[in-house]
Write a structure and sequence with these properties.
Elements lengths: L1 H15 L14 H29 L2 H25 L3 H16 L19 H7 L7 E4 L3 E4 H11 L10 H18 L4 H7 L3 H17 L10 H6 L3 E2 L26 E2 L8 H11 L4
Antiparallel strand pairs: 1-2, 3-4
Length: about 290
């Protein structure tokens, strides 16, 4: 009940707040509410999650961290394989299913990635819904869980049903496994925070744009359709292929014949580009593998 009251109070504060001074993103109609939840999550993270993750990373030897990551990644391969099949990606399903089989047996319950030569994919039910043409719906920030959309929120719930962790009968052990997975995941994000801090932007906006672009890229298997932004039409922006810092030239896409490079590999060269620094940073983040 106390947690419910806290969340309701947070909701009322967010909805009663002043309108955001930033330009509205059509994908984020709930921005005042989302910013309130984001602030709540950020407070919890700074007070609890981040210090615990830092302690874990400092105390756990690197080989131990790798084995913990491998263990949970192996369990995720079950969900990935199911979604491969739902998307009729049978070759991927064979690869991911084989990974789970070999790592669960020869890899000692997934502690060792003995099937590393088999490509590991990234599929979930949110992507499956997108694959079959269901739109993402409004962007929403979930308490504790963070960035999502209506579609991805549904996908997150569906993916939790067949999860191997969910079927651990001993409640205390199951909760400890959930906690260990959360701490391990938070520890993996510690180094990536440097990119967010160096961006010197509105952190909420940066995380939102990066999340939406990454999810769109995942749904389209790394080849999302290029979207036309309003500010392009208003300012008659021109695009050209330019080198992206810290990215080898072999990994930078060539401009297609139609003269419209994909969003992930394009950079705005007009002077007005500085008015949208977050988009530029997100493009760089996408190309450098930020997750």
């Amino acid at each position: 009940m106390q947690a419910t009251r806290i969340f309701l109070t947070l909701t009322s504060i967010a909805l009663a707040g002043c309108a955001s001074p930033h330009a509205r993103n059509p994908a984020d109609p709930l921005e005042p509410f989302n910013r309130g939840v984001y602030q709540f999550n950020d407070t919890v993270d700074k007070a609890i999650s981040k210090p615990v993750a830092q302690g874990y990373k400092a105390a756990m030897p690197v080989p131990g961290q790798i084995m913990v990551s491998n263990f949970f990644a192996n369990l995720d391969d079950v969900i990935i394989t199911v979604n491969d099949l739902l998307q009729f990606k049978f070759a991927q399903a064979a690869s991911d299913g084989s990974r789970f089989l070999f790592n669960s047996t020869f890899g000692v319950f997934g502690l060792f990635d003995v099937a590393h030569r088999l490509e590991k994919h990234n599929e979930d039910f949110g992507q499956t819904l997108g694959y079959w043409g269901i739109g993402s719906g409004p962007y929403i920030v979930l308490p504790i869980l963070g960035p999502s959309t209506v579609r991805d929120g549904v996908g997150l719930y569906v993916d939790s049903r067949p999860s191997r962790l969910r079927h651990v009968d001993h409640i205390r052990t199951r909760n400890q496994l959930y906690l260990a997975k959360a701490v391990n995941r938070r520890a993996q994000l510690l180094d990536q925070e440097k990119v967010l801090d160096e961006a010197a932007l509105d952190h909420y906006e940066f995380i939102r744009d990066a999340y939406l672009l990454r999810r769109q890229s995942l749904v389209h298997d790394g080849n999302p359709p290029r979207e036309e932004y309003d500010f392009e039409e208003e300012n008659d922006f021109k695009y050209q292929q330019v080198p992206i810092p810290n990215v080898p030239s072999s990994q930078q896409d060539n401009t297609p014949a139609d003269g419209k490079p994909q969003l992930a590999s394009a950079a705005v060269t007009a002077p007005e580009a500085d008015t949208r620094p977050s988009v530029r940073r997100v493009w760089v983040a996408q190309r450098t593998g930020i997750r």
